[in-house]
Design a protein that fits this description.
single chain, 8-stranded mixed beta sheet, 5-stranded mixed beta sheet, 9 helices, 13 strands, globular
Length: 334
Amino acid sequence: MPRISRRDLLAAGVAAGAAAALPRQLARAAPPGVPISVSSGNGLRAVAKACERVAAGDRPVHAAVEGVSINEADPEDTTVGYGGLPNEEGVMELDACVMDGTRGLGGSVGGIRNIMHPSQVALRVMERTDHAMLVGHGAYRFARAHGFPHQDLLTEKARERWLSWKEGLSDRDDWLPPENKEGGTITCLTRAVDGRMGGSTTTSGLAFKLPGRIGDSPVIGAGLYVDDTAGAAGATGRGEACILTCASFLAVEEMRRGAAPTDAALAACKRIADRTREKRLRDDDGRPAFNVQIYCLRKDGTHGAAAIWSGGKYAVQDADGARKIEIAHLFERT
């Protein structure tokens, strides 16, 4: 009798879990004349704003930035922009990227400080430079040159959480982030009625991260990828996993090959699960001990999302209005 390896068992479990976790709904193309926007679960206001701006004539990438800018300015959203959680030194460092699926252009900023709207700066990088990414002080100086005000982004609420974390540290440091400190993010994918697509992903990054750490949100192909000829995808969750698998690019390429959006998102999650080999990153059953969510919007307007672990929802605005929909998943949380 042939022996079955642990890897084979894990792969079989992932496939079975994914098959059982598909949402109980059929994807359908966007009705003619209706813009559509898809976002992470914290993006109900973002998708509504994005569709409003597309209907008013904005390019989809501009509309997506208008949408995520709402979260960037919200002090109650501790995962994005003003009010986000700082690095281990108590300093806010923000990341963001944008991509125009029609022109094949993108822009991003990483580790930018004292600027509330990194998504808007990333848009300027795309439109006003010949570069794709600016980081650190260079990104800050570029933003100031374009009139973005210098602002203190650390709210008292975020400062108190940082102080609480600092007070709970042990007297030794292994330079690995605590498992329960995953970063939060918002991604917004937008499609105009003529099929043009654009997107933006923005974040304050992993809470209490090492200064200078940059996740997937400013990395085109990891935290965001948009191509009118196939579709758009964005990611939230553990950024390192998305970078190492080019998760958003992979999901778009799956849609290019004909996959439904939810299946494309599941394929990206399965790739991450398969590539997670470090013991410290896996649970006792060999599954990823973290979460990643992938959101997809195909060129015909169908949409879907998937995560490694159950329990999430994504936001969408289409002909049926703004609402949240359950995300498909690989593994069920107990």
